[in-house]
Amino acid sequence: MRSPVAVPVSTPVAPAAIVSKASPLSTPWTDQVPTTNPLPEYPRPQETRLDWQSLNGG
User: What is the pTM of this model?
Assistant: First the structure.
């Protein structure tokens, strides 16, 4: 006969609220940046070079 096994149960935890800190380097646009809707991904450049040369020796 097997003995019962205790399984830990995790309790759901509510996400912590975002608390703004004072910016050491602020601009006129600092207060206009929304903290509730950040950029979905890292911004990618819109322009690309058609002809380029690698300076890494390749």
Answer: 0.28
pLDDT surpasses 70 at 58: no
Residue 4, token pair as written in the block: 């019962």
Grouping H, G, I as helix, E, B as strand and the rest as coil, residue 31 is helix
Amino acid at 55: L
Would you report the helix, strand and coil content of the chain in percent, each value rounded to 5? 5, 0, 95
Distance from C-alpha of 51 to C-alpha of 35, rounded to nearest angstrom? 39
Closest among 18, 14, 9 to 36, alpha carbons compared? 18
DSSP character string of 12-57: P-PPPPP-----SS--TTGGGS-SSS--SS----S---SS---SS-
